[in-house]
Amino acid sequence: METSKETLTIQTPERVGFQYALAGIGTRSMAFLLDTAFRGLFLLSIFVLTSLVSPWLPALPIAKMASLSRNFIIAIAILGYGVIDLGYFLLFEALWSGQTPGKRIQKLRVIRIDGQPVGWLESAVRNILRAVDLIGGFYPLGLIVIFLSGRSQRIGDYAAGTVVIIERRRRVPADRTRLRTTTGLWTPDIELNLSGLEPEQYQVLRTFLQRRQQMDPTHRNQLATELASRLVRRWGLPRDRQIHHESLIEEVVGAYERTRKAI
Amino acid sequence: MTETKGTGSKERFLIRLAGLKPGTSPDEMAAAVKKLMPRLSQEKIRQALDRLPLTLTRSATKAQAVKVKRFLESKGAVLKISYAAKAVRPPPQPEAPKPEKEPSAPPPPEATEPEAPQKQPGGADRRAKPRVHPGIQPHPMGLGEILDRSFRLLRQYFWIFFLIILIPQGLYFLVNKCALVISTGRFTPGTPAGMAVGFSIYLFSSFIIFIVFQFWAQGALIYAVSETYLGHRTSIRIAYGALRGRLGRLLGTLILMWILIGLLPGLSGVLPALILPKLGQSSPFIGLFVAVALVVSIIIAINLLLNWLMVDKVVVLEDMAWITSLRRSKELMKARTEKGFWKKTKMKASLLLLAGLVIGIAIHLAIQIPGVIFGAIIRGNLIILTIQEILNIAATSLATVYTAIAMILFYYDIRVRKEGFDLKMMAQNL
């Protein structure tokens, strides 16, 4: 097992490496803030529910209340808050395979250092020790430990042998629509030159097509012109023809993908 | 073309180690690369392997390129070989190949050290034609990723970034302390009545100098973070030096910005001031009117601040100044690249600042708690008080650095999304 600055690689006995992107302080803070909001809402809903239901509950005799120590009631309240506070993380992480609602939104997951999912024990240890990381509020100790840790672990993670990773889910690109419907290739030169197009260069063209809708029209046009003219120059395509730049890029990407599929 | 061994050919090849095949041991690869680049230490090579691609040479002959390819690919490397733009120097003479079963290590080609700082294109050129970066590829990021990346950059270049901001703050602290001791003979504030005016004038002028240095440091930090984010090397001296020619414009633009932020909401206060006397002192609307004017002022100020949040980056990285840079910053902050209320640029900037504030509080707590504990145990001790002040400066510098890095990465994120900044850089390899 080895860690680089951003990834954790787990080698299987067959020497196949699984790479996980380690979550940093930013994504973890965002997830924690979301979880804090959810816990706040949960506590608020309990409070509101209790207030609404209390008129219908039988009243405790005053004599019995008097016999209860005030400190005892405060202790029960603190314990109740602690159970909810700790239980939230403990239950969700153990039952949702290392995720809480905040972590799920941020696409984070807690896993064991060997890549296995966390169980009840790991979840309990890392969340009980959260109190140490959180000491003084706002995770000051946790921050220092994460800063010094090669795997961005806080004290709870060290004790439980866990790391927090970012889940990478590959999606089909949203925008694969074509600007113009063309019947076949714009020019056969494209197919002749495709063998010279390297995967990295194809990736640039494809990324442009995927992201062009987000881009500012001026910059989109400018970039399409630059990419297309580089292709024209590189492949020696006739410059006198009227070329619609984005269409040319679409043709090249389409032809490249068809060729790859054929192979 | 007739290819002769050695330097016979004019064609030169650029060889890059683009990746490792699955299951390849980085240690073995580092050892193999070491044979090619004996001048680099094993540790440096390991670090370079963590940040692939690694340029092995820019001036290999065809024969050398073939040998290097055969050798490294047998060790599990994924290589990218292309024509070099131009030959820099004549390549070294390769040794005669030895007949071995396993491909032997070819002679070391001209080793390429990590890219050294280079002269930058200025102004519009820089904006229009970003430099080709050696490996790090910017891409659209979410808020969490921006914060993560900021943290990693801070960790990686901690001393450069931290010292850039700490230098003016530390100097201000030292100079003030010295002046205090010299003028009053005391280490803690408290000036004799006769010296109060002179000392106040001194404090004011030293504060003005501090502000100038602080803006300089802010610009230097922007430069340094930008360089490292784009995969170039930098240092404290280079970062401060790069700002020398732009300091006046940076100062002027930032002062102009703060004056406008202060003035424009102030104008919304002028209106009630004009109307109120006409309403009369007993009007029931006075309170409401003042409250509305106050709220409007705050909204205007926040809106202006968000509009001009990128102005320092624009001045430093795009060589613009004055109103042009304010307009450019507004243009960037108005970019609408994603759907959804929470993904508006200004909303993202606000969330980023909020997250920066929370992490800043954590940094303050982490650094200042020891000083507070000692201060509580040993009261009124001069050394403890000084340590507390130093820790406070360190905490403020660190929190400032973190949020500043996040905002610089956010600036690049807007440009990546809106202008395809990353694609423009990558297009140069097409």
Architecture overview:
The complex is a heterodimer of chains A (263) and B (430). Chain A contains 12 helices and 5 strands. Chain A has helices at 25-53, 62-67, 70-95, 101-105, 120-128, 130-133, 140-148, 155-160, 188-193, 199-211, 217-235, 245-262; strands at 2-3, 7-11, 17-22, 108-112, 162-166. Chain A has 263 residues and is an alpha+beta fold. The two termini of chain A are 35 Å apart. In chain A, helix 11 packs across helix 12. The model of chain A is unreliable at 177-184 (pLDDT under 50). Chain A has 2 domains: 2-166, no CATH class; 188-262, no CATH class. In chain A, 57% of the residues lie in helices and 9% in strands. With 430 residues, chain B is mainly α. Chain B folds into 2 domains: 1-114, Ribosomal Protein L30, Chain: A, CATH 3.30.1390; 143-427, no CATH class. Chain B is built from 15 helices and 3 strands. Chain B has a 3-stranded antiparallel sheet with strand order 2-1-3. Chain B is globular, with a radius of gyration of 28 Å. Chain B starts with 12 loop residues before the first strand and ends with a helix. Mean pLDDT of chain B is 77; it is low at 1-9 and 86-135. Chain A binds chain B through residues 2, 4-6, 15-17, 23-27, 29-31, 33, 106, 136-141, 143-144, 147, 198, 200-201, 204-205, 207-208, 211, 214-216, 219-220, 223, 226-227, 230-231, 234, and chain B through 22-23, 26, 50, 80, 140, 143-152, 155-156, 335, 337-338, 355, 358-359, 361-363, 365-366, 369, 406, 417-420, 423-424, 426-427, 429-430.
